[in-house]
Amino acid sequence: MCGIVGFVGEKNVAELLPACLKKLDYRGYDSFGFAFQNNSLLLVVKQVGRITDFNGFLAKSASIGIAHSRWATHGAVTKKNAHPHISCDGKIAIVHNGIIENHSELREKLAKKGHSFAGETDSEVAVHLAEEFINQGRSFREAARETCRSLKGAFALLFINRESNELIAARNGSPLILGLVENGTFVASDTTAFIEFTKQAIFLDDGQIAFLGKEIELENFNTGQKLSTKISHIEWDAEQAQKNGFEHFMLKEIFEQPDAIEKCIQGRIANGQAVLPELDSIAEKLGKINRIVIVACGTSWHAGLVAEYAFEELCALPVEVEYSAEFRYRNPVIDENCLVIAISQSGETADTLAALREAKKHNAPVLSICNVMGSTIARESDAVIYTRAGPEIGVASTKAFTTQLAVLNLVALFIALQRNSAPESKVTDALNGLKSIPNAMRKTLEQSKTVEAIAGLYWDKSNALYLGRGPNYPIALEGALKLKEISYLHAEGMPAAEMKHGPIALIDSNMPVVFIAVKDRTYEKVLANIEEVRARNGCVIAVSSEAATEIKNLSDSVIYIAETIPLFQPMLSVIPLQLLAYHIAKKRNCDIDKPRNLAKSVTVE
Ligand code: AGP
Q1: CATH number for the segment(s) 444-592
Q2: Distance, CA 159 to ligand 1 centroid (Å)?
Q3: What does each C-alpha distance from 399 to 403, 447, 540 come to in angstroms?
Q4: For the domain 3-234, what is the CATH code?
Q5: 249, 302, 349: residue to mutate for ligand 1 pocket, most atoms within 8 A of CB
Q6: How does pLDDT run across 334-374, given as a tens digit for each residue?
Q7: pTM of this prediction?
Q8: How far is the centre of ligand 1, averaged over its atoms, from the C-alpha of 299 (Å)?
Q9: What are the domain boundaries of the chain?
Q10: CA 343 – ligand 1 centroid, Å
């Protein structure tokens, strides 16, 4: 939800910031803008549209600047509502990511004091507040501190002032990271903005404000307490955030899955055991758990649903998988014996973060499974296991999902041995099965051309159904979500057996039905469901394995995937569904990496 980036130091920000902002456009892409400060001048440029289409500035130079790529929440997509927002006297500029909840009340008060607002955003109050504090005689630093104290809600804010050589950055609930280079400092909502220049980073925490000039000074903006800085090393490479010859990031990320799983499990399997030192900090509590609650949103929630089968089968523990946004507003009955697992690619999803905080209030140990290092969810959890998928830029999650599944399976196998709830031989077989997943994925990816041809048959339909059973039921949900989000086709996923309880009424010759039909314990039942669709002239697309010989005669199209143990089959069966959504979206000329109305990281409720 909105990308922000700024720089102060010995580089020309007019050249630097457009390139950095382009790296953040997956966070929001309806409009963008820049503010540069030099020689007591403030230059502001805003535009509706995508930063990726921006050609840059002509011969401008400046050493302090801030930039923003917007995903609209309050106020339409217009130039006036694009950031940066400017004070009435034209001296201060801010960019904001998050939602300011008390904006109406502040706007009213500020308007009474004579401030005039250019647009309708919640963010604009921040710049007028800062100006108001300066009008009352405060310094730029004091005004920024006071502004942060007055705001309710979530924010990552950057302030510049044409009368100051400092860039001020503050965080409360939305991510903000400093990137350190010789003779300068970056600040951005994601490290991808500056990873090309530095891997040295400082992750700001909620309530912190950083004064960036020749030095970096860090404070708590509520108490004024000075804070020390902790430098972290980022492991991702700049090249990982490039398309490397693929037409879209999504396709590249689909094809990266075998390597991503290899990295994910590297060093985590040894001597017939899952090796997860990340769990040391909660080892004692893990020994006492009697239940697991998984909280997540979207694709990560689907990963949780798949994992439910593994935890039940291997650990004999009851599992509930909750939408984070629902969990946070209930009165969850959990205690210190309930392990809460928060799954989030970005580690910044507002609802999952709130669910994690709710769980901690109940003293439940929280394990998070995140992809983005140093993200808020990762930092606030009692233990974190990183998925090591590398940067995922396409808005539609692919490699993050399959690596989440790999980690969840490892956790299930770890707990199974700890609880003695599964025979050692079963755990060893499963771990060996996990090691063979990358090659099985490579084999499955060879079906890409077949999937593309199938997409050519169905791309102009209006609806689709996705059906699966057991751990492949969540994969049906995931397949439908992928199709919806990038091709804008209506799709529904459900357990195959549920179809006859209502949705079967939808089936006719215009309804493609995608079945995941692999040789597991429900295979025969799925065959019966396929027959029910055929009897009503529905078109059957089957994701199946060569061992399932009956499928060929029952389906209009078949996509063959490699076989593995049933618990891990979802890591393979999801691949054709990712590819199907991709190729259908491509045929429909959709903006695959940046689908309409979506953003990669949902940092608002
Ligand atoms: C996935 O394709 C979606 N873009 C979306 O559902 C995503 O999985 C969800 O917003 C959760 O994000 P997170 O994993 O970063 O928490």
Answers
A1: 3.40.50.10490
A2: 30
A3: 6, 17, 27
A4: 3.60.20.10
A5: 349
A6: 999 999 999 999 999 999 999 999 999 999 999 999 998 88
A7: 0.81
A8: 5
A9: 3-234, 244-435, 444-592
A10: 10
